[in-house]
């Protein structure tokens, strides 16, 4: 009976070991899944931060471009006004010259 008892005890030890192994497998799988999830979350947070910085940079560039564009428009309007003013002054000078010439030809 010693052989059968030994075989039965060995069988129970093996079964117990396999059961504990199966339990530990589930725990190991859960730990691996948690680890992988935490890595993905970390990477996603990093990528999100980089994307947010890039968006902020592009928004800043757009604001600078818009400001430069508006300043250019304001400068062009100021130049147009200066040109119109000089044109009016020249027209006044031209009218004055025509008056002077008409007086000279009458005499």
Overall body shape: rod-shaped
- How widely separated are the two ends? 157 Å
Helix and strand string, N-terminal first?
H
User: How would you classify the helix and strand content by structural class?
Assistant: mainly alpha
- Fraction in helix: over 70%
Residue runs with pLDDT of under 50 for 5 or more positions? none
Give the strand tally.
Answer: 0
**In percent, how much strand structure appears in the residues?**
under 5%
Give the biggest beta sheet: none
Instruction: Kindly provide the radius of gyration, computed on alpha-carbon positions and rounded to a whole number of angstroms.
Output: 46 Å
Count up the helices.
1
Mean pLDDT: 89
Account of the 3D structure:
The protein has one helix spanning 2-106. It has 107 residues and is an all-alpha fold. It is rod-shaped, with a radius of gyration of 46 Å. 0% of the residues are buried. The mean pLDDT is 89.
Annotate the secondary structure layout.
Blueprint: H1 2-106
Descriptive labels:
mainly alpha; rod-shaped; 107 residues; single chain
Structure in a nutshell:
By secondary structure, this protein is an all-alpha fold. It contains one helix and no strands. The protein has one helix at 2-106.
């Amino acid at each position: 009976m010693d052989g059968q008892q030994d075989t039965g005890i060995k069988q129970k030890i093996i079964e117990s070991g396999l059961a504990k192994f199966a339990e530990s497998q589930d725990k190991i799988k859960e730990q691996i899944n948690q680890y992988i999830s935490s890595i993905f979350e970390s990477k996603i947070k990093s990528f999100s931060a980089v994307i947010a910085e890039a968006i902020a940079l592009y928004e800043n560039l757009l604001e600078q471009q818009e400001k430069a564009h508006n300043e250019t428009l304001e400068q062009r309007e100021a130049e147009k006004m200066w040109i119109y003013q000089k044109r009016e002054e020249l027209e006044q000078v031209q009218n004055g010259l025509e008056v002077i010439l008409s007086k000279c030809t009458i005499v």
